[in-house]
């Protein structure tokens, strides 16, 4: 059928008109979508830029604290702009946000490790390995010479911060005074019972000493802990050459005590185990072996045996001992002893272990001692606490014998 073109144009839009309308419609839609995307991008970028500035300037958040340590501020005081550049992906953003959290975790772990290393009771802080010198206290004394009477005067005044040598957490100190090299003639102060800061105020005279001989002597003071049942325990010593002292008048000195020259480290070591049974209210002490014991006999050897005392407060409760090992500095004992100890008495209980040298013709010699309790030295306390923490298990440890 034939249609008249003019009639068709009058009744319906032409093809060109329809095409132009479609193009306009698509353009408007694209424009609207692009505008929406731009507004979203602006809001998103603005939010991220604001967050970066708040991170630098906010001290109250954990992220703010950690990043203030890592983000450098210029000389002018303005924060470095850390806002992401356009085109940065979401994955990049998440990576940037997790970086400071990783730094915080590393910082906390590092600080925790340092706190553990510096905490009381750690091995680095104990000092029993010789890395740091033990504090033995100090002593105050005066020295002077009377030229008319040819007399040297020594006054022992007091001591401070002496270490505890007894299982009760104190000491019974006294002082021996020598004029070296003479060791035969000595003078002694009185014993001050249970006192770590004793006052003596005692004066001693060395009469009949010409001045030219006095200046050739060394004044030697030895502080000891008195022990009624065994050998006195040395605490520390001080020596001062008298040729370095102005003896024309009384000179007063404060001197730190140093370890005694006989050296507790040369007495040897003892390996023993402790086993605590709370249900049976008992502790089993196993004397295993010793090594490098000090030779006490003329022949360069010893006849060692071990005494084990159970102490409660200041009283001796029970004693047991091993067999004697003849002429041996590295004896193996392997002997066990059981002691009944109620749980409520543990804090007031001390186990005193003494390695002795048997002597048939004279009094037996003490080679060294170990005090095991809550109040002993760092190594002994560690062994005692390990025993309590691991009931019904034999906990073994080497101990250095002390004078």
UniProtKB/TrEMBL annotation:
Transmembrane regions listed in the UniProt entry: 17-41
Primary localization: membrane
Encoding gene per record: SYT7
Pfam families attached to this UniProt entry: C2
Entry annotated with the keyword Hydrolase: no
Gene Ontology MF annotations: calcium ion binding; calcium-dependent phospholipid binding; calmodulin binding; clathrin binding; phosphatidylserine binding; SNARE binding
Composition bias, Polar residues: 52-61
Signal peptide (from-to): none
Any coiled-coil regions, as ranges: none
UniProt KW Transferase keyword: no
Domain C2: residue ranges: 135-255, 266-399
Protein name, per record: Synaptotagmin-7
Organism: Aythya fuligula (Tufted duck)
């Amino acid at each position: 059928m034939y249609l008249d073109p003019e009639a068709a144009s009058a009744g319906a839009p032409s093809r060109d008109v329809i095409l132009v309308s479609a193009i306009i419609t698509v353009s408007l839609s694209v424009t609207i979508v692009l505008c929406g995307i731009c507004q979203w991008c602006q809001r998103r970028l603005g939010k991220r830029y604001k967050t970066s500035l708040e991170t630098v300037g906010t001290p109250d958040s954990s992220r703010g604290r950690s990043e203030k340590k890592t983000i450098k501020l210029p000389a002018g005081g303005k924060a470095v702009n850390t806002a992401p550049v356009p085109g940065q992906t979401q994955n990049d953003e998440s990576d940037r946000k997790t970086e400071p959290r990783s730094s915080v975790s590393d910082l906390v772990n590092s600080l925790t490790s340092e706190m553990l290393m510096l905490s009381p009771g750690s091995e680095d802080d104990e000092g029993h390995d010789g890395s740091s010198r033990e504090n033995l206290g100090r002593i105050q004394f005066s020295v002077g010479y009377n030229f008319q009477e040819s007399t040297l005067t020594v006054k022992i005044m007091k001591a401070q911060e002496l270490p505890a040598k007894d299982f009760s957490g104190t000491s019974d100190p006294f002082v021996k005074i020598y004029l070296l090299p003479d060791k035969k003639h000595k003078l002694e102060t009185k014993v001050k019972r249970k006192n770590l800061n004793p006052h003596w105020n005692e004066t001693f005279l060395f009469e009949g000493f010409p001045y030219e001989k006095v200046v050739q002597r060394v004044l030697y003071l030895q502080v000891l802990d008195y022990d009624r049942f065994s050998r006195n325990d040395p605490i520390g010593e001080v020596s001062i050459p008298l040729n370095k002292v102005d003896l024309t008048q009384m000179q007063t000195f404060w001197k730190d005590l140093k370890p005694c020259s006989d050296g507790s480290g040369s007495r040897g070591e003892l390996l023993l185990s402790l086993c605590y049974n709370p249900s049976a209210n008992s502790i089993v002490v196993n004397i295993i072996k010793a090594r490098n014991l000090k030779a006490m006999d003329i022949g360069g050897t010893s006849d060692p045996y071990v005494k084990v005392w159970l102490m409660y407060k200041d009283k001796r409760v029970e004693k047991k001992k091993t067999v004697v090992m003849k002429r041996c500095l590295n004896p193996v004992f392997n002997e066990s002893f059981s002691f009944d100890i109620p749980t409520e008495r543990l804090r007031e209980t001390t186990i005193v272990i003494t390695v002795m040298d048997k002597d048939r013709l004279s009094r037996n010699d003490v080679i060294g001692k170990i005090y095991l309790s809550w109040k002993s030295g760092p190594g002994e306390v560690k062994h005692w606490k390990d025993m309590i923490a691991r009931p019904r298990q034999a906990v073994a440890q080497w101990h250095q014998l002390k004078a």
